[in-house]
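Lab meeting, item 3. Inverse folding demo.
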């Protein structure tokens, strides 16, 4: 399977749309506790995105290019290029994935609390959509569009190794 030097823009846009939709649903659900809770959640999501740019994207093959997750062209606007060797050297652990899961967990737990306080079909629909996008949407984007054609995966990717994908690098798990 051939990797992309630059991903088609529609893949990057789809990935960005799913991420923004997840964040937006989380904000809307958590706004049920007040605007400050929603703002704090949004700031958390922004911090998480900056951390991804700072810790991963600067060292990625797609730095300055169109990547499957839509961040490759964005990162040079804020951060200098790192060392591509560092990308492959990173260790992937489930503990390091916890901040990503919290983007989903915070609004789901908040939504459940709000449902206990007072049932709402709108809230059920929002939670269902959040669950589908967080698991199904992300799985499709990464599995069918992004990781499948990623040059970094071919070079070496800790996440690909952790999820059972094939990489050119040595297996460390």
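The presenter then showed the designed sequence:
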């Amino acid at each position: 399977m051939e990797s992309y030097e630059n991903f088609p823009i529609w893949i990057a846009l789809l990935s960005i749309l799913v991420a923004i939709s997840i964040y937006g649903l989380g904000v809307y659900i958590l706004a049920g506790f007040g605007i400050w809770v929603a703002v704090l959640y949004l700031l958390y999501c922004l911090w998480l995105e900056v951390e991804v740019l700072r810790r991963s994207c600067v060292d990625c093959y797609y730095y300055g290019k169109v990547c499957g997750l839509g961040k490759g062209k964005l990162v040079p606007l804020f951060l200098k290029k790192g060392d591509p060797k560092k990308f492959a050297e990173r260790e992937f652990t489930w503990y390091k994935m916890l901040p990503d899961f919290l983007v989903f967990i915070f609004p789901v737990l908040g939504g459940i609390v709000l449902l206990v306080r007072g049932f709402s079909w709108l809230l059920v629909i929002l939670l269902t959509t959040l669950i589908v996008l967080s698991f199904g949407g992300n799985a499709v984007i990464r599995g069918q569009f992004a990781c499948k054609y990623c040059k970094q995966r071919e070079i070496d990717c800790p996440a690909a190794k952790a999820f059972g994908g094939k990489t050119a690098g040595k297996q460390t798990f």
